[in-house]
Design brief:
This protein is an alpha/beta fold and about 240 residues long. The protein is about 35% helix and about 25% strand. It has a 6-stranded mixed sheet with strand order 6-7-8-3-9-10, sandwiched between helices. A 4-stranded antiparallel sheet has the order 2-1-4-5. β9 and β10 form a beta hairpin. The N and C termini lie far apart (about 40 Å). The structure holds adenosine-5'-diphosphate and magnesium ion (MG).
């Protein structure tokens, strides 16, 4: 579904790599949680695999399509929820979702059925014809999720998606992630919230200073680390524990 091999990326003028030799393979039907402290390289990795940022070294493929040489085919298979929602402020929710549906070639009946179901789930139906700039952060997050799912992507990528969501919406989002994977699709999301990762991920990875330090099944990781809690494991590999 997603294969990242030996990926590295440096920003201009920076001597350290924001992503450093990262390899990762995600299978159909799994939820993968991408954990790491601030500045670890989570957003950079996500922006690379969604085709927003260029990379110097390594390779990325989505559903067998190489991101550099077959970028349109690769991107067609991705739905992306960014960590900031300032770009489409002037559109209404409906215009934004229609725009996304047009980009991905979703027919009118299908987009309506998908949008209606998600709007109802997120209690956003009444705001659908208001400009996105009038939305709260949580509402922007929700419309961004609807836009990302309108073409029912094989790989759904979310950057810090729980930020700003109330408990009900966070619950709905977790349900959506599970439902997505139950269809044999894949979810890749970054988070600071260890409890969320612990609850819903099939596998997790911890990235520190651009390097993937740990990746695997939660139970296996815990067993390998002497049955510690995810918090203990995170603090010991990511630093931050003050002895
Ligand atoms: N546009 C940018 N220009 C230069 N450096 C950047 C830029 N974006 C991120 N970085 C740096 O790259 C590293 C990884 O950042 P980021 O991917 O945003 O981490 P995370 O999402 O895990 O918090 C950090 O050291 C950050 O300062
Ligand atoms: Mg980030």
């Amino acid at each position: 579904m997603l294969k990242i091999e030996n990926l590295s990326k440096s920003y201009a003028k920076s001597e350290v790599k924001a992503v450093d030799g990262l390899s990762l393979e995600l299978k159909p039907g799994e939820i993968f949680g991408f954990l790491g402290p601030n500045g670890a390289g989570k957003t950079t990795t996500i922006k690379i695999l969604t085709g927003i940022l260029q990379y110097e070294e390594g390779s990325v493929s989505v559903c067998g399509y190489d991101l550099k040489t077959q970028s349109n085919d690769a991107k067609r298979n991705i739905g992306y929820v960014s960590d900031s929602h300032v770009i489409y402020d002037k559109l209404t929710g409906r215009e934004y979702v229609d725009f996304m549906a047009d980009v991905y070639g979703v027919d009118i009946a299908t987009r309506k059925e998908r949008a209606d179901r998600l709007l109802e789930k997120f209690e956003l139906t009444d705001a659908f014809d208001s400009q996105i700039k009038t939305y709260s952060h949580g509402m922007k997050q929700k419309i961004s999720i609807i836009g990302a799912l309108i073409h029912n992507p094989n790989l759904w990528v979310l950057d810090e998606p729980m930020t700003g969501l109330d408990p009900q919406s966070a619950f709905q989002l977790k349900e959506l992630m599970r439902a997505h994977c139950a269809e044999g699709k894949t979810v890749f999301f970054s988070t600071h919230v260890l409890e969320v990762a612990e609850k819903i991920c099939d596998r997790i990875g911890i990235i520190v200073k651009g390097k993937l330090i740990i990746a695997g099944n939660l139970e296996e990781i815990k067993a390998a680390q002497g049955d510690s809690s995810l918090e203990d494991i995170f603090l010991s590999v990511a630093g931050g524990r003050h002895e």
